Structures are given as C-alpha cells and as structure tokens.
Amino acid sequence: METDKSSMKSLKAYEIIRDMILSGEKLPGSRLILSDLEKELNIGRGPIREALMRLDRTGLVKNIPYKGAIVETPPNSKEILHIYDLRINLEVKLGVEAMTNITEQDILKLEELHVAMQDCPKNHHHLDSDFHFLIYDASNLPHLCNIARILRGSVENFLNIYRRDKDHCVKFNKEHGLIIEALKLQDLDELKKTIAVNIESGLDVIRDTYATLFKVPH
C-alpha cells in the first residue's frame, strides 16, 4: 500500500513538473532543485527524485551527476527538420509493415480514438500518439517503434502541442480518417501518403508553437 502511495505521488510530481516545463514556467537551462520543488509541490523528495528520473528518460530534463537536474534545451529548427525527415521515413515503413498484421479489433480501437478526438479535447496530442502507435505496434518491430517514440518525444515533449487549435484538430482528424480507410482497404500507396501528410501537418504546428514558445524564427 505504501509503495502504491509513493508511486502515485511520483506520478503526480512528474505530471506537475512536466506541465511547468511545457508551459514555460520552468525555462530551458534552469535548475530543478529538490528542496525548492519539495516546497512548490508539497511532495517528498523521494517521489520527486523518481519523477525527475522519469523526465530524464523523456528528454525534458537532464540529470547531471553532482549538479542535479536541469531543464533540457530544445532542438534547434534545423534539427527539428531532420527529425521530421527521419520520422516520415521510419513511420511510413512501420505503417507498411503493420498493414498485413492489423486486426479488426485494432481498427475498432482506431475508430474509437478517432471519435474521441473529434471535439479537440485537451489530451488530443496524447490520443494522437496512441492512434499512431496502435498502428505501428502492429508492425511487430518493437525496436523501431521505440526509436519512433524517441524521435516523436525529442521534439513534441518540449512543446505544448496539446493546445492545438480547432483548425489543426479538424485537419488531423480528417487525415486520421483517411489512414483508417487506407488500412481497411489495404491500400498501401494511400497509407504511405496519408501517414506522411499527417506527420508533415504536425511539423507545421511544431513550427508555429516553437516560434511562439521559444521566440525562434521559422
């Protein structure tokens, strides 16, 4: 029971610190001092330390020996473009591999996620990620899926993407519908095209959000 309470506190600390970073309250390069976080969050050091280790794994925080935790610096605009080139190449391949393994149950889950995203909820970004990785996991290429997750997280974890405006959501939702249709029809060319287009649409949002949050020119 005590372990469960500690895990819940750690998760709460993780979510609060993550949102502080994504909202710009904790800026890139700033130190995350345990004693300060203890007072701010009213949570003990043990759960906070665990939360910082988890944030290190997402790329939002860097834990430096003898110095402590620092908010990681985001990729520059050139690196973002390279990341998205890699994402398109890899995720299209994963989609192609997944097509032959995708089940009717998987399609139903994709449709449920698609419905859940229609009203552009606050967690649209997370539902979007679940949508894509439900497909990619069907590729049975777990190591490449992990690389895809890291590439996605290396950019999007820095940005408050879940604040997508309605126009973006409508566009993404339409593209997700086309992806589902391509999977149902086993249309390989259409699947490749729609996955690539959807990722490129995300890049447009990344550019806008990156410029707004970090005042970096496109």
Q: Care to describe what's here?
A:
- With 218 residues, the protein is mainly alpha-helical.
- It folds into 2 domains: 2-71, Arc Repressor Mutant, subunit A (Orthogonal Bundle), CATH 1.10.10.10; 77-214, Four Helix Bundle (Hemerythrin (Met), subunit A) (Up-down Bundle).
- The chain has helices spanning 2-22, 34-41, 45-58, 77-99, 104-116, 124-137, 142-156, 166-185, 188-214, and strands at 31-32, 61-64, 68-71.
- It has a 3-stranded antiparallel sheet with strand order 1-3-2.
- A hairpin with a 3-residue loop joins strand 2 (61-64) and strand 3 (68-71).
- Helix 4 runs antiparallel to helix 7.
- It is elongated, with a radius of gyration of 19 Å.
- The model has no long low-confidence stretch (mean pLDDT 87).
Question: How helix-rich are the residues, as a percent range?
Answer: over 70%
C-alpha termini separation: 50 Å
CATH topology of the largest domain: Four Helix Bundle (Hemerythrin (Met), subunit A)
CATH level 4 superfamily of the largest domain: GntR ligand-binding domain-like
Order of helices and strands: HEHHEEHHHHHH
> Based on helices, strands and strand pairing, what is the structural class?
mainly alpha
Low-confidence stretches: none
Q: How are the strands ordered across the major sheet?
A: 1-3-2
Q: Give a short account of the largest sheet.
A: 3 strands, antiparallel
Q: In the residues, how many domains can be counted?
A: 2
